[in-house]
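Action item from last meeting closed. Structure (241 res):
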């Protein structure tokens, strides 16, 4: 569904008036770059695996079935040749023009940085960073992708993606930095998230600014809190600003 012209004009007006915008994004930001969303209808839940993705991508599964974890991870989580889409690009432009102060994301694909954003708080980590559990040496995604079986460090230690798995807690510093950015923002744009899962809904409660804009194709539990609700895809909105 195309965004209403009146709504779009209001959105643009608010962006013009603001100089401390924070964007909070979920899986919907990356699906338009061809990266699957775990929880959507077309997502990984509906593909065939021995275990559901939520089990495979859990801390205990990583410990117990590291080889099986990596089979799935390399196949499904390391999406090759994914490129930033119009939303990533426009957000990077807003940062460069001094309008946007931070992107808070639940995605782990590094596409905001690839588009040129520099202030990106990755709540769930990044597949682009991987570290040896023994000596903490870092490795890139190519090293993981090209390794046979379980990727090992030159010291012999097992390499783990710097991604927050199920059963694992979020990084305290990343969360507090994100909370700080949101609580100081004059405009908060929330996009591509159903706001159904922790910590998304909780973080938004810290916003005290003027304009809360929600952009999501389907309805969310916080729709009534929004000053402006755009029920369409992010690409349809950001391609027009
Ligand atoms: Zn090592």
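Sequence:
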């Amino acid at each position: 569904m195309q965004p209403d012209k009146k709504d779009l004009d209001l959105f643009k007006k608010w962006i013009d008036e603001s100089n401390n915008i924070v964007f909070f994004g979920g899986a919907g930001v990356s699906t338009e770059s061809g990266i699957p969303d775990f929880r959507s209808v077309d997502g990984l839940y509906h593909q065939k695996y021995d275990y559901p993705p939520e089990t495979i991508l859990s801390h205990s599964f990583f410990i117990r079935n590291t080889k099986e974890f990596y089979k799935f991870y390399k196949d499904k989580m390391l999406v090759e040749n994914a490129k930033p889409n119009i939303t990533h690009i426009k957000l990077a432009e807003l940062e460069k023009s001094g309008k946007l102060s931070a992107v808070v994301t639940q995605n782990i694909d590094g596409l905001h940085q690839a588009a040129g954003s520099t202030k990106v708080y990755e709540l769930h980590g990044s597949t682009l960073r991987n570290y040896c559990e023994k000596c903490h040496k870092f490795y890139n995604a190519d090293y993981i992708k090209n390794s046979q079986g379980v990727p090992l460090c030159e010291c012999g230690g097992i390499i783990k993606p710097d991604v927050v798995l199920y059963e694992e807690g979020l990084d305290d510093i990343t969360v507090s930095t994100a909370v700080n950015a949101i609580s100081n923002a004059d405009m908060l744009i929330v996009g591509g998230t159903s706001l159904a899962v922790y910590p998304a809904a909780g973080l938004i409660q810290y916003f005290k600014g003027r304009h809360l804009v929600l952009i999501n194709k389907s309805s969310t539990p916080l729709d009534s809190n929004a000053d402006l609700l755009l029920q369409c895809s992010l690409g349809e909105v950001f391609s027009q600003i």
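Note appended to the action item: Residues 46-78+126-163 form a domain with the SIR2/SIRT2 'Small Domain' fold (CATH 3.30.1600.10).
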